[in-house]
UniProtKB/TrEMBL annotation:
Domain Phytocyanin: 37-157
Recorded coiled-coil stretches: none
Biased composition (Pro residues): 165-186
Pfam families according to UniProt: Cu_bind_like
Organism: Dioscorea cayennensis subsp. rotundata
Organism lineage: Eukaryota, Viridiplantae, Streptophyta, Embryophyta, Tracheophyta
Region (Disordered): 160-196
Name assigned to this protein: Early nodulin-like protein 1
Signal peptide start and end residues: 1-28
InterPro entries registered for this protein in UniProt: Cupredoxin (IPR008972), Phytocyanin-like (IPR039391), Phytocyanin_dom (IPR003245)
Keywords for this protein: Signal
Amino acid sequence: MARMAVTVTAAILAVILSAVSSPMTVVADNSTPPPYVNHTVGGAAGWIFNVSSNISAVNFSDWAKSQSFFLGDYLIFKTGTALPVIQTYNVTTYARCNADDDNGNETYVYDGSASDASPAVIPVPLTVEGDNYYFSGAGDDRFQCSHGMRFHIVVQHGRGLPPSLSQPPPPPYTEPPSPPVTPAPPGAGTGQEESFYNGGGRRGVGVWVKFSGFFFGVLLLMV
């Protein structure tokens, strides 16, 4: 019985020590959110479609499953031919590989054709927590998307958005409206009119007086 009691006591002590140390380890692991990360889509292969074999360079869905994504991270699309990237939060748009019918604010198109780099590099920030969908907008009849150029990720909170991404962009500049023109009330004269009534002359009156004098002078010569 004594040996059994010692064994039980040792077992209880082991459980207590485990209970004390285990929470400390969990807190230490979860206290620091992961740092922001730039994810190169497809790894070394990049965001490339092989036109010879009509298939994507890698299986992007498998690549996405191997990563962890958080708010504030960036997806880096490296494309050899500036393939457009479509980002959507609409699963129907993603399933159809078509953003033409999406009239809301859930779909965005990133086009690398304006990039001077070769290959083009398209950075896409992760700003919405939850399901994010991506697919290629290149090719007729959504061919590239239907042949592997698409993937789905789930964005976690992590550190949250950094200030550079959490602030909304400033509103576009608009020309201020011109002040309304208020017509003068009836009977209210201008400064020129007041000058005329007080003995001054209106513009052009002096010319008329000079012309009248010249006209009468000619008449007198004729007589």
